[in-house]
Amino acid sequence: MIDKIKAYIYEVERFTTDNTEDLEQFRIQYLGKKGILNTFFAEFKNVPNEQKKEFGKTINELKVSAQSKVEQLKSEIASKIEDKGLYGDLSRPGEPLEIGARHPISLVKNRITTIFSNIGFNVSEGPEIEDDWHNFSALNLPEYHPARDMQDTFFIQTDPKDILLRTHTSSVQVRYMENNEPPIRTISPGRVFRNEDISARSHCIFHQVEGLYIDKNVSFKDLKQTLIYFTQELFGKSKIRLRPSYFPFTEPSAEVDIYWGLETETDYRITKGTGWLEIMGCGMVDPNVLKNCDIDPKEYSGFAFGMGIERIAMLLYQIGDIRMFYENDVRFLKQFKSSL
Ligand code: DAH
């Protein structure tokens, strides 16, 4: 029996807790009315006389150590609660929740897609990893075209050179025409990749928005009117000019300039003193491209255009270095908080 009490003493000494319920449980178990101590005290009368003295001493030891354990843990728990307070330290300064901002590229992309969806364009997307057909061949890009060169294109598969990171969103035109019947009005925003040196003006990853309109009797007039509507909505300026240009997938092709004006010093700088700024490429979809996508060029015609989102964002927000879009510096991103 004495060994049993000693085992309890050992257990009491080892016991620890930091919560009040467990401590109360412990107190009842040892010191309660029907607790371990009282059970041993009740046994006292049955203990042979010669052992009574040692029994009494040991059981007293158990009592004292259980009582002091309860006192010790009680004050430890109390001081911890005092430290924290029930709700933590109420005098600590609040932790501000930083509200994020949309990325300027997303802001401009959303504005462009809204402007076009207001006149009936839907939004379509295509894969960033493309094949030669959708990025080049179907778009009438002949094999000797410089855009196919290793220097401009990131090829994923080089033997044969078939799988690549798309160099423009025009590849989505092809996919869309392959899978949909005219009339087609679609706008395709997305990321594009070119093997170019990174500088303040150009990057190897950037964004474009492609537009495509195919129907019966679509003419260059429709293209021009759509662009005037677009520039008015986006920049609040509708004076544009179409300069003859060349793209393999459009015939005729044009480069679109917007009259930015020459009011400020910045206007002089960004327009190189001319007042005009180039904002996109466009043209009438080449009959060969329609044929490649199983659309009859005798029945249908259409226009297409493509623009770089970074370039437009740089104009709208007066950003001087394209690399800022990709650095994710919060001091830069924060500035777009109030923009929609
Ligand atoms: N794909 C051209 C580029 O990346 C942009 C472009 C020009 C797209 C004319 C078009 C277009 O749809 O008609 O530079």
From TrEMBL:
InterPro entries: aa-tRNA-synth_II, aa-tRNA-synth_II/BPL/LPL, Phe-tRNA-synth_IIc_asu, Phe-tRNA_ligase_II_N, Phe_tRNA_ligase_alpha1_bac, Phenylalanyl-tRNA_Synthase, tRNA-bd_arm
EC class (word): ligase
Annotated Mg(2+) binding sites: 251
Protein name: Phenylalanine--tRNA ligase alpha subunit
Reaction equations catalysed: tRNA(Phe) + L-phenylalanine + ATP = L-phenylalanyl-tRNA(Phe) + AMP + diphosphate + H(+)
Claim: Transmembrane helix is one of the keywords in the record: no
Primary residence: cytoplasm
Localisation per UniProt entry: Cytoplasm
SUPFAM superfamilies (UniProt xref): Class II aaRS and biotin synthetases, tRNA-binding arm
Family membership noted in the UniProt record: Belongs to the class-II aminoacyl-tRNA synthetase family. Phe-tRNA synthetase alpha subunit type 1 subfamily.
GO CC term (a single one): cytoplasm
A matching Pfam family: tRNA-synt_2d
Enzyme Commission designation: 6.1.1.20
Swiss-Prot/TrEMBL keywords: Aminoacyl-tRNA synthetase, ATP-binding, Cytoplasm, Ligase, Magnesium, Metal-binding, Nucleotide-binding, Protein biosynthesis
Quaternary structure (record): Tetramer of two alpha and two beta subunits.
Example GO BP: phenylalanyl-tRNA aminoacylation
The protein's required cofactors: Mg(2+)
Cofactor binding, note field: Binds 2 magnesium ions per tetramer.
Domain of life: Bacteria
Every Aminoacyl-transfer RNA synthetases class-II family profile domain range: 108-335
One GO MF term attached to the UniProt entry: tRNA binding
